[in-house]
Amino acid sequence: MHALIFATLKPFFFVKIVTVISQKTLFPASEMPPKGKGNGKKKGKGKGKGTSKEPKCRAAAEPEPTSHFYFPREIISNILSRLPVKTLLRFRCVSKQWRNLISKPDFIASHFRHSSSSQFSGSSILIGSRHHESNHHVVSLYNPPESVVQVDSPFPCFFPNMYIVGPCNGFICLFNPPWGELITLWNPAMRKYKMVELTDSLPRQGLHFLASIGMAFDFQQNDLLILRIFCVGIMYAVPNHVEMYSSKSGKWKKLKNEMIFHILEFTCNVIVKGVAYWLVCMPDKFGSRAVFVRFDVGKLVFEKLPSIGRCKKHQYLVELEGSLCMLDWDHKDDCHMDVWVMDDVDGWSKKYSVGPLVGFDLILGCLRNGDIVAKNENGVIFLCDPITSSIKEKFSFDNNKDGSYVIVDYSESLFLIGGMLPVKKQDAQDKLARKKVTRNSGNLAH
After folding, report:
1. Domains (ranges, CATH) in the chain?
2. How many H-runs (helices) and E-runs (strands) does the chain carry?
3. Where is the composition biased (Basic residues) (predicted)?
4. CA 194 to CA 154: how far, in whole Å?
5. How far is CA 40 from the centre of its chain?
6. What is the reported pLDDT for 370?
7. ∠ CA 96-101-106, rounded to 5°
8. What is the pLDDT of residues 274-319, one digit of tens each?
9. Of all helices (H) and strands (E), which one includes residue 54?
């Protein structure tokens, strides 16, 4: 019942409640210190037998200034788990009990579930782009209907080909193509990051032509995973070289892979509930065909998904309301789009069709709440309602290179891993990165 009541309340109301609670004692009366001797009844001379009732009634009508509220711990946890990360970081100073609670893995998992589910009604968007003149990358955060805010990224901006993977449990993975170098794990909400040291594995010349990076999350082990796949060319019928990084152990290990498929992208296509999915080409007796594969976190193997059948020209994997979905469209068809949903039992089924989407130069994807992300020829980005095809939000960037946008949903998380550092201001971060690159280059020269 308590969970149902609090689920209907607004976030700002939670803040008001918690502010009041933070000023009160959070424990029942049985845990409160006993009253002093002076708080009992006083006997005086000449007092009548019934005169003691008047002070007693006054005490009942006027509560003592030392009275306290009592909220059960489960209600406190329920309220706090629905607050923004920024607020929770401030509330860690309220008491030792609150600090310990906010740091517990169960609370962090509960908070992320609430953060993810709240995004179904309105998504926070992380946007990666490149500056038109300098070609430096820019990372921004957009919380409709607020304005777009540029955030400090831990990745050096003078590496313009930065790719974004994720999010996965509140984390973003940044890296440099084509071989997945400078891998950086970043929690934007907590403003912390970690550079991941790579293995000694190198691509084989003539066999591998790119490395594809994916992320996954092992909820059983509470472990954030990175997948680095050295992808073989289409002319080779051999398995890819796959290695996995565990944030819990801080180590990489090579995974056994016997499935033959060809990945053509630098990143996985989507991550749904901690599972990474790729659209790949798989050889068969007719040549090759496009199929979907996913990485099974429990078995540490790749699995092939059922095929949809006849599709249009463009296919785009997305997460929609917690499920794996695929957008299927063709610009020649007045931009009518079919939305397919994947079920492990029934396979693919068409959820609904959208369109016509008129006036858009390019469709960039879909948010988890179903909003279609599209761009017109002037570079203005639109969020469109898939049912009514009406425009809900629009925004644009100045001096950004056309075609450089990467737009992903983002849910806040308190989750951290070992060895993380605070993100500095972008100029300070870039200055430090330049020193490291220069020092490493000097060592290689010798």
Report:
1. 1-26+66-103 (no CATH), 118-441 (2.120.10.80)
2. 8, 26
3. 38-50
4. 9
5. 57
6. 82
7. 160
8. 999 999 998 877 777 888 999 999 999 999 998 776 666 678 888 8
9. helix 53-61
